[in-house]
Structure formats: structure tokens, C-alpha cells
Design brief:
The structure holds 2 protein chains of 2 kinds. By secondary structure, chain A is an alpha/beta fold. Chain A has 17 helices and 12 strands. Chain A has 2 domains: 280 residues, Type I PLP-dependent aspartate aminotransferase-like (Major domain) (Aspartate Aminotransferase, domain 2, 3-Layer(aba) Sandwich), CATH 3.40.640; 135 residues, Alpha-Beta Complex (Aspartate Aminotransferase, domain 1), CATH 3.90.1150.10. Helix content of chain A is 36%, strand content 13%. Chain B has one domain: Rossmann fold (3-Layer(aba) Sandwich), CATH 3.40.50. The chains are: A alpha/beta, B alpha/beta.
Chain lengths: 436, 164
């Protein structure tokens, strides 16, 4: 039923991030009026008739076919994150790692290359360095703290630059605008993993990024209960300018010769990622997980503010502790990344950071095993405070050289500070440090 | 008028009022963007009259094709131009000439098409001009359908019914 109120203007461009974290993408259900987003736990959707089905399969009309491609609950999460990032469109995946694969699949041909920061989540180093290699994609890892290193490593076959703007695990913040300039000069997209900063602390599109990746498993969901990932596009990248992206700018045999970047304009990359990569590889997000991630993201602004406050207090406590050699948190005066943090994430540099123990590898193992309140597990971005010794866990599969280069030397302990009472977090670390 | 961004009210008003649209550059090839938009708008209850000199006298999606705007024998409040910016200039002058006769109120240029000089002429003649937008995408945006594919509609509403 149409609403005939001609005076109503509901464009959300001016709404604040707290409002969009709750409302973007989620209208009340048109049929039932349900205010919370319903969980559409269905695999498929009835066609109106054969012609409607054909229009849907040909992408001529918007609508649902099969939940591997689109689902009404998942779509709310996709639009929500696209809105929070200030992007044009998003596609969800079963995990951050799946999202990352889909993002590259829409850009790369066998034999193509890309340049990546070497300060990444350990799983990304393995995905890029080993599994991508088997698809014929070569990743050149560089020290990201000097932006020129990206330019020096680029080859004519490079199709993207990839960074974590706030690197996991090291507390390293990159000069995103300078790196974006290099990508722009070479007419290739800058892909930013914004998982640890979240759009509340930093919106990479405002600094020249073209594609944003999320592991929604972390702060977006925020409660450590659901895996999920997203690929978000800015809608501003000119795919036609370089001739480097035939998958987007030339007729696609998978859709009878449709040209994605022409037909869908500023959301052509997302349509291609959904209609080809997600369709053909199938790592789709479940409606139940999308619902839980939506529940989480409603409080993202509140949680991130508290995460940052608590992390700052814990970092200051650790820096003053005699058994701690160093603390790498960009909120500390001692951090070489303090100025970049103030530029790119003035609300705070997140709550995942590392510190070094005098006791080395064995000291790290003893510390994680002595904690009572902090959970020893391999995740970040939970309401709960988490502790991990990367050298004995997440970064174990890397070579010593890769491990050290990524910032996970044997003495490093990683924290993901939660939103418990901050004095309790500090007290637990204090008693555990006594046992090291 | 500012042609970098358009208020939602303006676009929605056009899509509510203009139910018959002359589509210049409509293609019979189903993988072309104009064919996508025509088919979608037909499904939403719009009458689309295709204009394409190379196909004049033929049919696209069940509608007779005309060679030029002036050949269309009935009124149409909106012209949607699926041609490049240069061609859009001449088409704008053609539309201005017959605007009173055919009841043309709105001149719409497709995604990627912008001709500011032509827009100024059309506005001086009393037409409303929209450039670098797609009526299919805007319809999908206001109806909420665009969000079904994860696209940011920019719409926030606590009302129960989809609004267009």
C-alpha cells in the first residue's frame, strides 16, 4: 500500500551513526508489522509466475530466489553495514575469511597479483600466501609503515592493495590516505580490513579506500556468538579507467553477456560478487547468524566507546607494570602510532593490542594460563576480555620469519579488552602477572 | 538547480506522477541496461514507450517502437534518455520543442549521463531535469527493493508500509 504523504522525506544521509546502527536497512515487516527484524529461516522463495522467475534469474528485477544468494534477514545486515561505512552496497558471507575470498574473486584472474601489508591477522597471511597461490594469485607482502613500500612492490599485474588499517595483533595504525593515493595513481582499488576499528571508530571510504572487508564475528556482532563477514563497496571506483578488470567491464559469460559495471553502475562490483562469486562458491551467511549480528550491531557505538575506555586504562596499567617490557597500544603517549590514531580514529584506537613480557615464550604461556576472568581463546571483539599468546596459537603455522614480521614475536601477548568493570580486568591481569 | 544530489521528495514525486515514460535508446537486447530498466518499470505498472530510430516500427517488450519523440501519438510526462551526454543535448532540444504538445514535465538522463548545458535549456523551458540517475534504481530505493540486494537505500523509516 502506498503512503501518499507527499511531505515526507526519509533520506537517511543526515542521520547519525547511532541511529543508523539501529535502523538502517530495517523497516518494520510490511506484512506483519514486526518491529525486530524477523529471521527468515527459509531456503527458497515462491515465484509469482514463470516470467517473474526468469526476470529474477536474469537479475532484471530485485527479489529473492534462493538463500545462497539473498535472504531478507541477511539483506538487512548488508544494508546496515553499507550504511554505517558510508558505502553503496554490501554482500555478506559466512565468515570474514569467506568475505575476503569473495572480494578478491571478483577482481582477480589466474596469474594476477596484489600487494598487501604484512601486518595482518595470521589467518589472512596464510590465506593470501598459501591458499591464494594455488588459484594462481600472488601476494607481495610489504612493511606497511612506509607507504612508498606499496608503490615499490606494485607490478603491472597487480589488481589491488590490501591493508588492515588497525592491524591485528600489533596495534599498528597505517597512513591510509597516503596508501589510497598510491592505489588511485595505479587505478587499482584499496581494500581495507576494518574489522578491528569498526565504522564507529574509522570509516575507510572517507580516506580513499574503495572496498572494505569485515569479519563481523568480531566487534560488529560483538558478543562472540556468530561467525559472519562482509564486503562493502564505496561505489566510487571507476572500473573502466584501467582496463584491468574485465570481469566487471566486459560481457560476463555467466550471465549471457551482461556487463556488471555498466548495468549496475555504482553497485556493479557487489552484484558481481553476489551473483557470481557467492553463487558459485556458496559461503553464504545463515539468517540466524545475520539476526544475531544485527542484534549486536545495534549497540556498536556504545560498546566501542566502552571498549576503548577500558583498553586505554588496561594499557596504562600494563605500561607501568615491572614485568611488562613494552605495550603497543596507539592510545598511549609512548606509541609511535599515536598521531596516526588521532588522525584516523579520534574516538579511540580500538581494544585489541599487544604487550611484551620479560619472560618470553614461556612467560606468555604461564600468563594466559593464570587468568581467571580473561578468557584464553582465539577470537577478538567480544564483550568479554580475551587473552592469547599468538606465538603458541594463531601464528603457530607461520614460519619464524613471517611470525616475527607480522608482529607476533615469542614474547607477545594479545589482549582484546571487553566491557566488564575495568577494575576487575586490571585485577585479573595483576594477579596473573604475579604468577609469571 | 543542484544536479549533484537530489532530494528524496523530488525523485519520489516524479516517480509517483509520471506513469508513462518515453525511453530514448531502449534496446531489444535483454542484456542491455535499458532493457533491464524497461522490463522492471513495466512490472511496477509503468507504461514505457520505446524510442529507437534503428528499431522504429518494431516492438520491444510488447510496446511499439517509435523513431523519435515527436512520432509518439500520445502524451507522456517524462522522457528517459539512454544515450550519451552529447546525444542527450540534441534530444533535450527535441523534447523542449514538443513539451507543451506532449505534456512533458520531466527530462531524465540515465546513470553516467550528464549534460549541464542541456539541463539549463530544459529548465529555462520549465522542465524538471534529473541527470546521472536510473529510474529503476530510484524506484527500487524508495520501495525498499534495492535493499534486498544489500544496496544502501539511504532510507530510514519506522513506518510499516513500503513507500514510493
Amino acid at each position: 500500500m502506498a503512503n501518499d504523504d507527499d511531505t515526507q522525506d526519509d533520506a537517511s544521509e543526515d542521520y547519525g551513526i547511532e541511529t543508523r546502527a539501529i535502523h538502517a536497512g530495517a523497516r518494520p515487516d510490511a506484512t506483519t508489522g514486526a518491529r525486530s527484524t524477523p529471521i527468515y529461516q527459509t531456503t527458497a522463495y515462491v515465484f509469482e509466475d514463470v516470467d517473474h522467475a526468469a526476470s529474477l534469474f536474469n537479475l532484471q528485477t530485485f527479489g529473492y530466489i534462493y538463500s545462497r544468494l539473498t535472504n531478507p534477514t541477511v539483506a538487512v545486515l548488508e544494508e546496515r553495514i553499507a550504511s554505517l561505512e558510508g558505502g553503496r552496497a554490501a554482500v555478506a558471507a559466512a565468515s570474514g575469511h569467506a568475505a575476503q575470498f569473495l572480494a578478491f574473486f571478483s577482481l582477480m584472474e589466474p596469474g594476477d597479483e596484489f600487494v598487501s601489508s604484512r601486518n595482518l591477522y595470521g589467518g589472512s597471511i596464510t590465506q593470501f600466501g598459501l591458499s591464494f597461490k594455488r588459484l594462481g594469485w600472488t601476494c607481495h607482502f610489504v612493511d606497511p609503515t612506509e607507504p612508498e613500500n606499496f608503490a615499490a612492490a606494485l607490478t603491472p599485474n597487480c589488481k589491488a592493495i590490501f591493508i588492515e588499517n588497525l592491524a591485528n595483533p600489533g596495534g599498528v595504525i597505517l597512513d591510509m590516505a597516503a596508501i589510497a593515493d598510491i592505489a588511485r595513481a595505479h587505478k587499482i582499488p584499496l581494500i581495507v580490513d576494518n574489522t578491528l576499528a569498526t565504522p564507529y571508530l574509522c570509516r575507510p571510504f572517507e580516506w580513499g579506500a574503495d572496498i572494505v572487508i569485515h569479519s563481523a564475528t568480531k566487534f560488529i556482532g560483538g558478543h562472540g556468538n556468530s561467525m559472519g563477514g562482509l564486503v562493502v563497496e564505496s561505489g566510487k571506483f571507476d572500473w573502466f579507467a584501467s582496463g584491468k578488470f574485465p570481469g566487471l567491464t566486459e560481457p560476463d559469460p555467466a550471465y549471457h553477456g551482461l556487463t556488471f559495471a555498466e548495468t549496475f553502475g555504482d553497485f556493479g562490483y557487489t552484484m558481481k560478487t553476489r551473483a557470481v562469486a557467492l553463487r558459485d562458491f556458496g559461503p553464504s551467511l545463515s539468517p540466524m547468524n545475520a539476526y544475531l549480528l544485527l542484534q549486536g550491531v545495534e549497540t556498536l557505538p556504545l560498546r566501542m566507546a566502552r571498549h576503548c575506555d577500558n583498553a586505554q586504562a588496561v594499557a596504562e596499567f600494563l605500561e607501568a607494570h615491572p614485568k611488562v617490557d613494552w605495550v603497543s597500544y596507539a592510545g598511549l603517549e609512548s606509541s609511535p602510532y599515536k598521531a596516526l590514531a588521532q588522525k584516523y580514529m579520534p574516538r579511540g584506537p580500538g581494544s585489541v593490542f599487544t604487550f611484551g613480557l620479560g619472560g618470553g615464550f614461556d612467560g606468555g604461556v604461564r600468563l594466559v594460563e593464570a587468568c581467571e576472568l580473561l578468557s584464553h581463546l582465539a577470537n577478538v571483539g567480544d564483550t568479554r576480555s580475551l587473552i592469547l599468546h599468538p606465538a603458541s596459537t594463531t601464528h603457530r603455522q607461520l614460519t619464524d620469519e613471517q611470525r616475527d614480521a607480522s608482529g607476533a614475536t615469542p614474547d607477545v601477548v594479545r589482549l582484546s579488552i571487553g566491557i566488564e568493570t575495568v577494575a576487575d580486568i586490571i585485577a585479573d591481569l595483576d594477579q596473573a602477572l604475579d604468577k609469571v | 538547480m543542484n544536479h549533484d544530489s537530489y532530494p528524496a521528495l523530488l525523485l519520489r514525486g516524479i516517480l509517483r506522477r509520471c506513469k508513462t515514460i518515453a525511453m530514448v535508446g531502449a534496446s531489444p537486447n535483454w542484456v542491455r541496461p535499458s532493457n533491464f530498466a524497461m522490463k522492471y518499470l513495466q512490472l511496477k505498472g509503468y507504461r514505457i514507450i520505446p524510442v529507437n530510430p534503428a528499431r522504429a516500427g518494431g516492438e520491444i517488450l510488447g510496446e511499439r517502437v517509435y523513431g523519435c519523440l515527436a512520432d509518439i501519438p500520445e502524451p507522456f510526462p517524462m522522457v528517459d534518455i539512454y544515450r550519451n551526454a552529447e546525444a542527450a543535448g540534441a534530444l533535450t532540444d527535441e523534447a523542449i520543442e514538443i513539451a507543451a504538445d506532449k505534456g512533458i514535465e520531466v527530462l531524465w538522463m540515465q546513470l553516467g549521463v550528464r549534460n549541464d548545458a542541456a539541463a539549463a535549456r530544459a529548465e529555462a523551458a520549465g522542465l524538471t531535469v534529473i541527470m546521472n540517475r536510473c529510474p529503476k534504481i530510484e524506484y527500487g530505493r524508495f520501495s525498499g527493493e534495492l535493499g534486498w540486494s544489500g544496496i544502501n537505500t539511504g532510507i530510514i523509516s519506522a513506518r510499516r508500509h513500503a513507500v514510493i
